[in-house]
Design a protein that fits this description.
The chain is 48% helix and 0% strand. It is mainly α and 60 residues long. It has a single domain, classed as Erythroid Transcription Factor GATA-1, subunit A (Erythroid Transcription Factor GATA-1, Chain A, 2-Layer Sandwich). The N and C termini lie far apart (41 Å). The mean pLDDT is 80. Bound molecules: zinc ion. Zn(2+) binds at residues 3, 6, 18, 22. Inhibits all the catalytic activities of DNA gyrase by preventing its interaction with DNA. Acts by binding directly to the C-terminal domain of GyrB, which probably disrupts DNA binding by the gyrase.
Length: 60
């Protein structure tokens, strides 16, 4: 099996991914959706804007 993100050989520790980085990329894709990779869907844009605003409101 190869990494679904970059198609390199999977690491047994992170399969089906090749590294933690690729596992994180995949996770972010599922969790972030339109936030990480903006789409042209207006609903996604609105969702992304809201996510950014909420991020700013968090105390640092
Ligand atoms: Zn990979």
């Amino acid at each position: 099996m190869s990494c679904p993100i970059c198609a390199r050989v999977s690491d047994p520790d992170y399969r089906p991914f090749c590294s933690k980085r690729c596992a994180d990329v995949d996770l972010a894709k599922w969790l972030g959706g339109g936030y990480a990779i903006p789409s042209n869907d207006p609903d996604d844009m609105e969702e992304a804007a809201r996510a950014v605003v909420e991020e700013d409101r968090k105390p640092h």
